[in-house]
Amino acid sequence: MAELGVSQSQLVDNGRKFPQYIAALSATLGALAAGSMLGWSSPVVFGITQPNSTDYSFPVSAAQGDWVASLINLGAAAVCFPIGLIMDALGRKTTMLLLILPFTLGWVLITFAQNVAMLMVGRFITGIAGGAFCVTAPAYTSEIAQDSIRGSLGSYFQLMITVGILFAYAVGSYTSVFVFNILCGCIPLVFGAVFFFMPESPKFLVVKGRNEEARDALIWLRGAEYDVDSELNELKQKQQDAIDSPVSFRSAITKKSAIKALVICYALMLFQQLSGINAVIFNTSQIFSSAGASIEPSIASIIIGVIQVVATFTSSLIVDRLGRRILLLFSALVMCLCSTALGIFFFLSDAHGQDSSIVQAISWLPLLSLSLFIVSFSLGFGPIPWMMAGELCMIDIKAFVGSTAGTFNWLLSFTVTSTFNSLNTAIGSGQVFWLFASIMVLAFLFIFFIVPETKGKSVDEIQVILGAEPQPQRSAEQKK
């Protein structure tokens, strides 16, 4: 694909990669904060809705507890679209640093809540900050990374989400709610102290005409030995082309390549939330109990959290070796089989009773299915949809696609979370799992026929795969 222009693999590739890992991990400390926000409700909401709870000075009903748990989804959905405009105006780094303010405010309200309304507002505000990180962190990471490690760095976002959830499960189960809230509120402050020293996205700096700052950022990220000027010149030339041949947003978003990128991003978000991950998590305690394991629900949650972290970390190690498609296909296939198995178990349990001989004979099945489901989700459908949202789009529509896809994802999460119990009652728990299994069949077919492989591809190469016209290679003289 020499005609596509200079990719980073054609440049002097002896630059340092360690600083890029540091910058990506620093950025995803915001995802750690978001993960602790997501995991907060598991150890806290059940306790504070009990009649004898002393964690707050006011009572919280079960219905109010459901809202306290799910309001973060609405906060995240509300911010995803405007945050795209904000990060295009202020920059990725500045936007993420500013998010420390709503995160801190939210945790202060949660910690010192005097009534249910104050608690709900705090959860909504932390949802805003967490949802904003879900857009800005993947965009920042994809723009600072070399093509050869972009997948690994992109998967750190989901990895830190799972670490944050595990932190919430482990710490929240064995500390008071007050102490737990304080610890969660400290995470955004730690993020700010670390990320303050990281560079801004070079691509954003070039778009804003701050070329010297972009060069300094590239030197920080790649090292002085890397051919920084070639990459900078390529970025400058793309920006100059955009200035010389301005394209309206409507034209940019209606290109064949942009439409295909949009469809893929939305579809992957849809399949991620309809994979059944929430159904599996909600049934963790019952699944452990069905397998005859006398484990406390808090311990069961921690075990699941550890599995998620280990599997997501494994994904970060292999995603740039095996590729995105193969991991997504594997993830969809295994989750389909596991959901089918869980459906069979719960259907038989409902039909014959949990103590029946046929159910007891397969008491090992739900625990095995649960573990494999979590592993396969964490390898593929957990991290890769967020990563692909940052990889498939050109910078002129990346913020829009990332933000609207994020909004779609959080709204789906809220819908699934709020309707799961009703759906379970209406059609039966076994049938719910079979429904999720059928959705994973559709996901497998969609990935097989539609989703391209982006492993090691430059932005230009990805756009051509999506249907854009190849860009002619420029000579060294043209770049100067």
From TrEMBL:
InterPro entries: MFS_dom, MFS_ERD6/Tret1-like, MFS_sugar_transport-like, MFS_trans_sf, MFS_Trehalose_Transporter, Sugar/inositol_transpt, Sugar_transporter_CS. Residues 27-455 form the Major facilitator superfamily (MFS) profile domain. It is found in: Cell membrane. NCBIfam families: SP. Keywords: Cell membrane, Glycoprotein, Membrane, Transmembrane, Transmembrane helix, Transport. The lineage of its organism: Eukaryota, Metazoa, Ecdysozoa, Arthropoda, Hexapoda. This is Major facilitator superfamily (MFS) profile domain-containing protein. Belongs to the major facilitator superfamily. Sugar transporter (TC 2.A.1.1) family. It is a multi-pass membrane protein. The chain crosses the membrane at residues 21-47, 67-87, 94-114, 120-141, 153-172, 178-198, 258-279, 299-319, 326-349, 361-381, 393-412, 432-451. It comes from Plutella xylostella.
